[in-house]
Design brief:
The longest helix is centred in the middle third of the chain and has 15 residues. The chain has a seven-stranded mixed β-sheet with strand order 5-4-1-6-11-8-12. Strands 14-17-20-23-26-29 form a six-stranded parallel β-sheet, with no helix packed on it. Strands 15-18-21-24-27-30 form a six-stranded parallel β-sheet, with no helix packed on it. By secondary structure, the chain is of the alpha/beta class. It has two domains: 265 residues, Alpha-Beta Complex (Spore Coat Polysaccharide Biosynthesis Protein SpsA, Chain A); 102 residues, Hexapeptide repeat proteins (UDP N-Acetylglucosamine Acyltransferase, domain 1, 3 Solenoid), CATH 2.160.10. Helix content is 21%, strand content 26%. It is elongated.
Length: 405
């Protein structure tokens, strides 16, 4: 069941502005994000990571949505299409792209997500929302934000953080919380070396807007020339120390896909017999910009097992447990296993790929061997070429050669 209508939401909760932070570089993903912001990264063949928070907003009845860009904005801007794929292109309110700028005292590049909010503090204040929902654009999940809003308003908190559970040994990648009675956050550490719990933030934050803007102003003044950086450095610790932060458990599937292994595993999750996340659920579909491609073509020589094949792909070879993007070509005699191929990639006769992520328009020539079924995930960058007969070891990265187009 979809969320409440915008008018009902407004009457019951006041004005809510969703702000999606989409300026991340995604440096841990190597050649996959060399020329694109991480939120523009393809996922599941035909989707992009930015599609998840945008779809969640629309289904939750939130239609005032801003996207903050910075790093490599061109491909992301094209994907956003002015908000049209999510019916956010409206006359009043609706969709807006916010860029860093030069000019007044608040201008300049964003040094982190808290700094991004601080530099747009005046703009947010002019819009005057009662609540500010701040979202990351590089996680894979579904969430009804209306439930988060309802619980936030029923409490005395000035920030409510959506949380999930991860193994304690993996928690050092996140903001780690200690949660007491009534879901009050009693402790917070940002990416600690030795996490105390496996309860982590999902980078979904709901703030009382006035309190947030006032706190940002105080922290910015105290920080001097260094300025603010990320939420976890000063902003969240300040609100937690004042006893005004609350946790809200996000039930269901959630995955941070910021590393090659987690990005690859997210795709393998889609291919499970009973996938933990269904992207085309009629009750909560993930919406995306439309593809203008013909249906996929499967040749008589093809063998396809437990895979996703996007429109425009041509398969004549052997594909197992893999996701093929639009226009991908797998030649007769080629083998692709446990891999993710972006749009317009080509794998020629005799080539073998195992546990590989191949970015757009890359070429894997005849008889090349890339990765294996046991080692780390191998990354092939956009427009890169693996030469005929070349072997690329598991865990390697192959980027496009300088000067090629």
């Amino acid at each position: 069941m979809l969320g409440l209508s915008p008018s009902t939401l407004s009457r019951r909760r006041g004005r809510v502005l969703a702000l999606i932070l989409a300026g991340g570089e995604g440096g841990r993903l190597g050649p996959l994000t060399e020329e694109r912001a991480k939120p523009a990264l393809p996922f599941g063949g035909t989707y992009r990571l930015i599609d998840f928070p945008l779809s969640n907003c629309v289904h939750s009845g939130l239609h005032d949505v801003w996207v903050l860009q910075q790093y490599e904005p061109h491909e992301l801007t094209s994907q956003l299409a002015g908000g049209r794929p999510w019916d956010l292109d409206r006359t009043r309110g609706g969709f807006r792209i916010v860029h860093p700028y030069l000019g007044d005292s608040e201008s300049g590049w964003y040094a982190g997500n808290a700094d991004a909010l601080q530099r747009n503090r005046e703009l947010i204040g002019e819009f005057d929302p009662d609540l500010l929902l701040v979202l990351s654009a590089d996680h894979v999940y579904k969430a009804d934000y209306t439930e988060l809003i309802e619980e936030h308003l029923a409490s005395d908190a000035v920030v409510t953080m959506a949380t999930t559970e991860v193994p304690v040994e993996d928690a050092s990648r996140y903001g780690v919380l200690e949660v007491g009675e009534d879901q009050i956050v009693s402790g917070f550490e940002y990416k600690p070396d030795r996490p105390k719990t496996g309860t982590v933030t999902t980078e979904i934050f709901l703030y009382d807007t006035r309190t947030l803007l006032d706190t940002l102003a105080e922290l910015d003044e105290d920080s001097g020339e260094e300025g603010l950086q990320d939420f976890g450095d000063e902003l969240i610790p300040r609100l937690v120390s004042e006893g005004r932060a609350r946790a809200w458990e996000l039930n269901g599937y959630w995955r941070d896909v910021g590393t090659p292994l987690s990005y690859w595993q997210g795709h393998m999750d889609l291919l499970a017999t009973e996938p933990p996340l269904v992207l085309d659920d009629p009750g909560w579909p993930i919406l995306t910009a439309g593809l203008q491609r013909a249906p996929a073509r499967i040749e008589s020589s093809a063998r396809i097992d437990s895979s996703w094949v996007a429109p425009g792909a041509i398969v004549a070879g052997h594909v197992e447990r893999s996701v093929l993007g639009p226009g991908a070509v797998i030649a007769d005699g080629a083998v692709v296993r446990d891999s993710v191929l972006f749009h317009d990639t080509r794998v020629d006769r005799g080539a073998t790929l195992e546990r590989v992520i191949v970015a757009e328009s890359a070429q894997i020539n005849e008889d090349a061997i890339v990765g294996d079924g046991r080692g780390d995930v191998t990354l092939i960058g956009g427009k890169a070429v693996v030469q005929k007969g070349q072997s690329v070891a598991a865990g390697s990265e192959v980027a496009r050669e300088a000067g090629t187009t």
